[in-house]
Amino acid sequence: MAVSIFSREVFDLCLGKPALRSLSVSATVGDALSVLKRLGESYLSLWSCDHDKSSRISDDCRCVGKVCMVDIICFLCKEENLRSPAAALQSPLSVLITKTPTGIVRHLEPHASLVEAIDLILEGAQNLVIPIPSQSRRKKLLQKPSSKSTLHNNREYCWLTQEDIIRYLLNSIGLFCPTPINPINTLNVIDPKNILAVQYDDPALAALPLISQSLVNHTSVAIVDLDGKLIGEISPFTLNSCDESVSAAIATLSAGDLMAYIDCGGPPEDLVQLVKDRLEAQNLEAALELMEEESTITSLSLCSSSSDEESGSGRSKSGGSYSARLVRRSEAIVCYPWNSLVAVMIQALAHRVSYVWVVEEDGSLSGIVTFAAMLKVFRERLNSL
User: Per the record, which residues fall in region Disordered (predicted)?
Assistant: First the structure.
């Protein structure tokens, strides 16, 4: 029975998923920023073609990457970009594409098996792009024509993520017993080496390359004290709920202060003022203007949202910081070495993360468990059947 689950077509896991919003790689960073804010999307897919400039169907039109607010924030954190954010936003989107030997994004046909999808992920793919069969496109009460931004080669596509596969396997977890009920420290699933971590008092800029790496790996950056105990984390998931002005905070604050700055509810006023003071001291007037501009936009957005609620429209705004996207606190999600695999799976899915930190009884950080490592366990279980 477990074998038949792995033979299921991947499209079964994609039912109901929205079609990908996209941009051409020839667009600019500023274009991506504008679309992310306007649509309230967490990610945009990047394609090798440009549907807005040509109606011709190209067989070479492929998804070559993805971009999110974290990519833009990390890009703007570079010193030359902080000195001229406006010029940086005119850069081509290709500067944000992470290049790996296997490719972060891979295409897969809808009739491919689940085991094929897992193998691609274990080879290094972080997201799989699946075509949506025309006869299976979502039927809505009010049918709307497909947008150019979701059509490629006259087809729509969706993401298939590690979370989708883990959630699917969890629904049939009993078929894999006794493996899922075993402690994680007996399954070779804990990674004690590839831990991305900085100390609380380290400059947040020291965490910048780790943030970029954690975004690619679907993990996070741990914040630890001098004794190696886990205090919290700088999560790409949380950063993705912020706006581009957070780049100024990364450039001026410590890792611990940044953790508080991006926590849900918005940054404390004293930290906002601290960032502004340090920007002035470093002669980063352009970055300071960016902060003040975003502050004004946020205030107007909140006022507009309040008016909409009073008038009964209930529309949510996506233009300002922390306003529309799902936000998660900077508190790290942890487990212990003796917890079962299924318990850790449920914990990660409940918090919408693809990893869980492993700590000892004294709170010291000893490793991390990722969805990719879990999938490897299930793949090995299939080989033993």
Answer: 299-321
User: Count of CB atoms within 10 A of residue 193's CB?
Assistant: 6
Query: Pick from 231, 244, 158: which is nearest to 201 by CA?
Result: 231
Mean pLDDT of 67-81: 93
Superfamily grouping for domain 2-134+149-160? CBS-domain (3.10.580.10)
Would you list the domain boundaries of the chain?
A: 2-134+149-160, 184-295+328-384
Question: Distances from the Cα of 213 to the Cαs of 99, 106, 196, in angstroms?
Answer: 12, 18, 8
CB 210 within 8 A of CB 77: no
pLDDT digits (tens, 9 = 90+) for 339-379: 999 999 999 999 999 999 999 999 999 999 999 999 999 99
Beta strand 105-107 pairing with 151-152: unpaired
Asked if the domains at 2-134+149-160 and 184-295+328-384 fall in one CATH topology, the answer is yes
Write out the DSSP string of 308-359.
HHHHT--PPP-SSTTSSS----SPPPEE-TTSBHHHHHHHHHHTT-SEEEEE
C-alpha span between 299 and 148 (Å, rounded): 32
Spatial CB neighbours of 57, under 8 Å, sequence gap ≥ 6: 153, 154
Confidence grade of residue 109 (pLDDT, cut at 50, 70, 90): very high
Q: What DSSP character marks residue 17? A: P
State the burial class of residue 249 (Cβ atoms within 10 Å of its Cβ: 0-12, 13-18, 19+): buried
Q: Which residues partner with 129 through β-bridges?
A: 107, 159
Question: What CATH architecture applies to the domain 184-295+328-384?
Answer: Roll (3.10)
| Crossing angle of helices 162-170 and 341-350, rounded to 10° | 130
At 384 the pLDDT is 74
CA angle 240, 153, 325 (to 5 degrees): 15
